[in-house]
Structures are given as structure tokens and as C-alpha cells.
Design a protein that fits this description.
Elements (H helix, E strand, L loop, with lengths): L6 E2 H8 L3 H9 L7 E2 L5 E3 L2 H14 L4 H8 L5 H32 L3 H11 L3 H16 L6 H9 L10 H14 L2 H18 L11 H14 L10 H15 L5 H14 L2 H14 L8 H16 L1
Helix pairs in contact: 3-4, 5-6, 5-9, 6-9, 7-10, 9-14, 11-12, 11-15, 13-15
Length: 312
């Protein structure tokens, strides 16, 4: 057809694949205006209306509203400007949907109460500054604030989540759960006791030189016993327990007696809090670190072995 040929609305519908009522709707709103009318009063459109309608359909499929589309087709605003603004708006919507999905997934996984669900929803919507303030408050309550010393300052950094600007769904979900966990008063208090116990051990009159971490000692001593299938209550476990209690006695500069074993048992029970390990797992997801080794088996073995021997 020639460029100056005028087309009835039915022909326009056939060429664009749009329904007649849709084209009439766009025409009534001034987005695609008729070039003329037939003697009977029917609308007639120029050939360029086909390209105009194709653009309108594309922009509608991309989610643009009709007033904005009209400005684009009338060249009141440029398409790149509109596309940039719309892409930014979609990015906000995507982040919001990710946050909602993370909350709902966490609720389903944790079996959350309505109160915890409300808390997760609020925490998921925090800004970057608000997230950092929340974590600073949590770590400050655990480690004692800025004056905690270089060793604990390094530990604080190692426990700090850094949610990226464009997190994936797993990271958003992990952040939401970690934020809820950080607000748990019992979890905070338990970590604080662990830090205080560790500080007291470092300040004790026992072993000098580099301080051997208790968790590392438990892992190294108990790991082989677990692999060998040694039961915690069996006589074969006695040398392993003796190595643990002997190490702890040297750290504190105290005799390896029942009182010391009870103290070590209390320390290990604190280390066995599953919330501590869960925090480490979530932190690894958020920061894209390798998944941490689970220490639950060796700690549970140590706790059971000590309980049996303390009761004797």
C-alpha cells in the first residue's frame, strides 16, 4: 500500500494484531489519532499508525502507563529517558519483591510467630545506613563497643555482614534471618558470656605466648575420636577428655580437677548454642564466603563426654 493510503480501523487491527476495541481505546485517548474520516464517519488512519501502535504495544508490555506512552509517541520526552526512569522504578520493585519473598520464605522455614513475622518484615526494609547501625549495636553489645581492643576488633569485623548493592534472593533471605537473630536477647547474652570467658582466659596466669583457641583445640582433639567411632562415655574416650581438660588447665594455670571440668563443660555448652553456628552460616551467605565447617558434632561429643565424667 502507498504511504498516503488511509486505512480503516479493521485493516489497522489486522496489520497490528490488536483488537479493534483496543485501537479505538488508544485513539480516544489521543495516542493514535485518525488522519481522517470516511463519508460514513468511520475513522481512517495513516500508514505510520501501524508503527506507532507497534511501539505502544511494546511499551505497554514493558509496563509503561498510557500518559507516559503518549508523551513518548508524541516526542515530548525521549524513549531512552523514559526507559532509564522505568528501569530504575522496576529495580525498586524487584528489591521490594525480593524482600517480601525473603520474609515469606523465612516465615515458612522457621515457623515464625506473627510477632517475629512483623519484625522480619520491618528489618528487611531497612536502608544501608539503618542496617549498619543495627549490626553495630549488636556487635557493640557483644564485644563491648569501640574500646574492645585489637583482638576483639578483628573478631567484630569477622562477624560483620556486608550485604551487596545488588543481593540475590539467598542473600536477602540470609540477611533477614541474621537481623532477627541479632535482636535475640538470649543470643546476645550468650555471645557476651563467651567473649568475657575468652577474655578472662587470655588474661589468666596460665600458658604464655600465642593463645590456643578452645574451639580449635576441641576440633583437633575430638575430630579423630569421632572419625574412629569412639563413644563419649566409653573408656576409649578418656585420653581425649584428658587432653582437653589438660589444655584448659594450662590455659587457666589451674589444676585439672572436677571444678575445672565443670567450668570447661559450661564453656562448651555455650559454644554449642546452635544460634552461634547459624549466624556463621548466614554470614557466609551474605558475604559470599565459603560455607563454615560445622563444629556441632565435636562440641556435642565433648559436652556429653564431660558430663559423664563430672557426674562420676
Amino acid at each position: 500500500m502507498d504511504d498516503d493510503t488511509l486505512h480503516p480501523i479493521g485493516e489497522l487491527a489486522r496489520r497490528t494484531g490488536l483488537a479493534v476495541r483496543t485501537i479505538r481505546f488508544y485513539s480516544d485517548r489521543g495516542i493514535v489519532t485518525p488522519a481522517d474520516r470516511s463519508p460514513a464517519g468511520y475513522r481512517l488512519y495513516a500508514t505510520d499508525a501501524v508503527a506507532r501502535l507497534d511501539l505502544v504495544r511494546t511499551l505497554r508490555d514493558l509496563g509503561l502507563d498510557l500518559p507516559t506512552i503518549r508523551k513518548v509517541v508524541d516526542r515530548e520526552v525521549s524513549l531512552p529517558e523514559v526507559a532509564e526512569a522505568h528501569a530504575e522504578a522496576l529495580a525498586v520493585q524487584i528489591r521490594t519483591l525480593r524482600q517480601r519473598r525473603a520474609v515469606l520464605t523465612a516465615v515458612a522455614t522457621r515457623g515464625s510467630t506473627p510477632e517475629e513475622t512483623d519484625l522480619m518484615h520491618k528489618l528487611a526494609q531497612l536502608s544501608e545506613r539503618e542496617r549498619r547501625s543495627l549490626i553495630d549495636d549488636f556487635l557493640g553489645s557483644v564485644f563491648g563497643g569501640p574500646g574492645a581492643g585489637p583482638v576483639f576488633a578483628a573478631a567484630m569485623r569477622s562477624m560483620t555482614p556486608e550485604l551487596p548493592d545488588d543481593p540475590d534472593d539467598e542473600q536477602v533471605q540470609a540477611w533477614t534471618e541474621l537481623a532477627v537473630l541479632s535482636q535475640d536477647p538470649e543470643f546476645r547474652a550468650g555471645l557476651r558470656r563467651m567473649i568475657e570467658d575468652h577474655a578472662a582466659e587470655r588474661a589468666s596466669g596460665g600458658t604464655t605466648g600465642p593463645h590456643r583457641d578452645l574451639v580449635g583445640t576441641v576440633r583437633d582433639q575430638v575430630g579423630p575420636a569421632l572419625t574412629a567411632g569412639i563413644e563419649p562415655a566409653s573408656p576409649r574416650a578418656d585420653p581425649v577428655v584428658a587432653a582437653l581438660t589438660g589444655h584448659y588447665a594450662r590455659v587457666l594455670g589451674r589444676p585439672d580437677d572436677v571444678e575445672l571440668r565443670r567450668r570447661l563443660l559450661t564453656r562448651l555448652e555455650g559454644l554449642g548454642d546452635t544460634r552461634r553456628e547459624r549466624y556463621s552460616q548466614l554470614l557466609a551467605v551474605i558475604n559470599r564466603w565459603p560455607a563454615p565447617e560445622s563444629l556441632t558434632p565435636v562440641i556435642e561429643w565433648s559436652v556429653e563426654a564431660l558430663r559423664v565424667r563430672v557426674r562420676r
